[in-house]
Design a protein that fits this description.
Elements: E1 5-10, H1 16-35, E2 46-51, H2 63-68, E3 79-83, E4 88-97, E5 119-132, H3 136-143, E6 147-148, E7 154-155, E8 167-170, H4 180-187, H5 192-198, H6 203-214, H7 216-221, H8 224-240, H9 249-271, E9 280-283, E10 286-289, H10 298-305, H11 308-315, H12 320-345, H13 352-363, H14 370-376
Parallel strand pairs: 1-3
Antiparallel strand pairs: 1-8, 2-5, 3-4, 4-5, 6-7, 9-10
Helix pairs in contact: 6-8, 8-9, 8-13, 9-12, 9-13, 10-12
Length: about 375
């Protein structure tokens, strides 16, 4: 089984809203109990059942392969992608079992499953992240990043490709969604389900940013967290633009996080490709490989990208224009953003004009958007 194997599951569109809501309610309830000290971090999870189709007799033809994914959860992230065609979530898989967990005591099973008699198997999900909300076009774009090995490795399509669910899939970029160090920096230690609950109501803004500002290619190329931060900043700006007394620091901080998460993702993907000798940078007087540094701040990203050996190693994997911008212009942009963000994050008030200038450069108001430029970068 390939090292980057994951699952894609469909929840019944007829139960679309209630299904995801009930699972998230159960998971968020466990997270609240963890915050209150009532349970440990190991007890934060929710069970997701593969409801058996009433039209199918016998077990799933690939049930053994699905259960075998559990063998990999200790060594790497295994993802379960969940969609109803309009929205898309990714969950962190902890366990797979054919035992009916509804019969066990004190297990977090949503009451949603009272409506169904039998499930083929159950997935223990440690956390759930929102990727797309109420946007079928973007679901289609994101599913293209998944490949179906049983269908000649072709990209997953909701038009005729959703069969024998859940599908065992792979993705070439081997993205990490639930790295604890990255989560600590981006969500201030919150679980992703908690973070998304606090950033709800931005679906319409996300669609507008894609359709009218950044474009399909750039938007699809941005990390889901980068899209959330950009949309959250834009919503804040629109809600308070006329309020001269408002402190626009949150707008700047959210936009800076969008740059930060996207630049980190590109850097780590490139770091896995360059020769070992080019991966080392000086950090506090010590030479350390980039891929062991964890999540980098804007200032740290700027310094790493300006390292001549690192730049030389990465340039081979980028086309000329992308390489010149990513390794030449972007470090300066990140350094300037870091200076403004550090002031904003330490109780220095940010005025509307400063926030507007950063927002216009980021989203492309009257110019080429820097986030769009980041989202369009493709590694050769």
């Amino acid at each position: 089984m390939p090292a980057n194997t994951h699952l894609l599951a469909l929840w019944n569109p007829a139960y679309a809203t209630s299904a995801m809501e009930r699972h998230l309610d159960t998971l968020l309830g466990r997270m609240l109990r963890y915050r209150a000290g009532e349970i440990s971090a190991d007890d934060v999870y929710v069970w997701w059942g593969k409801v058996r189709s009433e039209h199918r007799e016998g077990e799933l033809p690939h049930l053994k392969e699905i259960c075998a994914l559990e063998d990999h959860v200790d060594s790497r992230e295994v993802h379960v992608y969940l969609t109803d065609y309009r929205s898309l979530f990714v969950a962190h898989l902890g366990e797979v079992t054919c035992e009916d967990v509804r019969e066990l005591d004190d297990e977090p099973v949503p009451d949603y499953y009272r409506e169904f008699s039998e499930c083929d198997c159950w997935f223990q999900l440690w956390d759930i992240r929102r990727i797309v909300t109420d946007d079928t076009i973007e679901v289609v774009n994101q599913l293209k990043k998944l490949r179906d090995p049983s269908y000649h490795g072709r990209p997953v399509s909701i038009y005729g490709g959703m069969r024998d669910l859940p599908i065992i899939v792979t993705r070439e970029d081997d993205i990490v969604f639930f790295d604890p160090d990255r989560r600590q920096h981006l969500t201030e230690g919150k679980f992703w389900a908690e973070f998304d609950a606090e950033h709800s109501g931005i679906g319409a803004i996300e669609r507008e940013l894609r359709d009218n500002m950044l474009g399909d290619k750039a938007w699809s190329g941005l990390n889901s967290a980068a899209r959330t931060f950009a949309a959250s900043a834009e919503k804040l700006m629109r809600d308070h633009r006329a309020d001269v007394a408002f402190d626009f620091s949150p707008v700047v901080v959210e936009l800076c996080k969008a740059y930060e998460v996207q630049a980190n993702e590109l850097l780590q993907r490139l770091a896995r490709l360059i020769p070992d000798a080019k991966r080392f940078v000086n950090v506090d007087g010590r030479s350390r490989p980039i891929n062991e540094l964890g999540h980098l701040t804007l200032g740290e990203l700027s310094r790493v990208l300006l390292d001549p050996d690192v730049a030389e190693g990465m340039r081979h994997w980028l086309n000329r224009d992308d390489g010149n911008w990513f390794l030449g212009s972007l470090p300066v942009i990140l350094k300037n953003l870091a200076d403004t963000r550090n002031a904003a994050a330490h109780s220095t008030r940010v005025d509307r004009e400063t926030a507007l200038q950063i927002r216009e450069r980021a989203l492309g108001v009257g110019c080429e958007g820097e986030l769009a430029r980041l989202g369009k970068i493709r590694i050769n």
